[in-house]
Design goal:
Keywords: Membrane, Transmembrane, Transmembrane helix. The chain is mainly alpha-helical. The chain contains three helices and no strands. The mean pLDDT is 69.
């Protein structure tokens, strides 16, 4: 659920940013390049945010699975976050 909400928010932000940039650079000759750069930055942010949300969800599941083993939850959380990011 967190992944879906995060992804939806970032798509809305991407649309808003693209619209604003399109208006700002409407009369500039390099507007296509600027729009492409904006879209690339937004896609990178979306991808990174989704992976962080997935890492949090997976960590929560793994933490519940190994809750009985003292100290192992923190190690697994660290591993999951570093692998997914």
């Amino acid at each position: 659920m967190a992944v879906l909400v995060t992804w939806t928010v970032w798509v809305a932000v991407a649309v808003a940013v693209t619209a604003v940039v399109a208006v700002i650079v409407r009369d500039c000759p390099g507007r296509v390049a600027v729009l492409m750069l904006t879209l690339v930055v937004v896609i990178v942010l979306v991808t990174w945010t989704v992976w962080v949300a997935v890492a949090v969800d997976v960590t929560a599941v793994v933490s519940v699975m190994v809750m009985d083993f003292t100290g192992r939850v923190d190690v697994l959380r660290l591993i999951v976050v570093h692998v997914t990011v």
